[in-house]
Design goal:
This protein has 283 residues and is an all-alpha fold. The chain folds into three domains: 130 residues, MazG-like (Helix Hairpins), CATH 1.10.287; 68 residues, Helix Hairpins, CATH 1.10.287; 44 residues. The protein is built from twelve helices and no strands.
Length: 283
């Protein structure tokens, strides 16, 4: 089998990998649940390549992510649920339906009718999805229905926690459940921090976890108020920490010492040095 620019070749490769008689033993052992973590990982690696503005890596990571889509579609085809063509058909229908101002008639292209169209489109999609779930025997959402009766039911719980908190808060804010200034949010953060301190002092593990969750949720609220994506902010903080910690390790190694042999005071001094490096200096 030879490489190709056509998606059909990738589908053929995946089918061959899953062939019961001649396929790859590892691939034959996989199912939706075992592949799902790789799917999430590949999506993050795409985001990482974009953040680093690395087009070589981005091309490769997009291919790896596309492979995940093909993989899940192959598993579904084997189960008789749907195939890759159904996936493409579904998303093309959705894009055409959701953009009547681009693909619709003259009336649909009217900017003034955009909101009316959007509400109708969402209702149609919910009804179609509910019908599909019923036909396939698939589970309904947390509310036990696909009618979208509860305001927050439309927010998928599949997102990382910080992103999920942000999306839930935005959805709640749409109907006015929101602070009108940053002051009360900061006060709430102070309140949650104090409650966390009390729970920790009482050595109550369950309460400590709950209070930490409340604190993080409040911090996300502050981030949202200032139009900061908390997932992006935390990620950049972690990368900055990794860079500065790497500087400490490099400086210690240059003097013939290891991290394990260094005292906390030495590492703190190097940490300060890492923070005061000229911008752009490698660490």
């Amino acid at each position: 089998m030879t490489p190709s620019r056509e998606i059909t070749r990738l589908i053929e490769i995946m089918a061959a990998l899953r062939d019961p008689a001649s396929g790859c033993p590892w691939d034959l052992e996989q199912d939706f649940s075992t592949i799902a973590p790789y799917t999430v990982e590949e999506a993050y690696e795409v985001a990482d390549a974009i953040e680093r503005d690395d087009m070589v890596d981005l091309r490769e990571e997009l291919g790896d992510l596309l492979l995940q889509v093909v993989y899940h579609a192959q598993l579904a085809a084997e189960a008789g649920s749907f195939d890759f063509g159904d996936v493409v058909d579904g998303v093309t229908r959705k894009m055409i339906r959701r953009h009547p101002q681009v693909f619709g008639d003259a009336e649909a292209r009217s900017a003034g009718s955009a909101q009316v169209h959007w509400e109708r489109i969402k209702a149609e999609e919910r009804a179609e999805k509910a019908a599909l779930r019923q036909a396939n025997g698939s589970p309904t959402n947390d509310a036990g229905t696909d009618t979208g009766a509860r305001h927050l039911d439309g927010v998928s719980t599949a997102f990382p926690a910080l992103t999920l908190a942000l999306k839930v808060q935005k959805q709640a804010a749409e109907i006015g459940f929101d602070w009108d200034s940053a002051g009360p949010i900061i006060a709430k953060i102070d309140e949650e921090l104090a409650e966390l301190a009390e729970a920790v002092a009482a050595r109550d593990a369950d309460a400590s976890e709950a209070e930490l969750g409340d604190l993080l949720f409040s911090v996300v609220n502050l981030a949202r108020f200032h139009r900061i994506d908390p997932e992006v902010a935390l990620r950049r903080c972690v990368l900055k920490f990794r860079d500065r910690f790497g500087f400490i390790e490099t400086e210690l190694a240059a003097s013939g010492r290891s991290l394990q042999a260094a005292s906390l005071e030495e590492m703190e001094a190097l940490w300060i040095a890492a923070k005061t490096r000229p911008s752009g200096t490698a660490g």
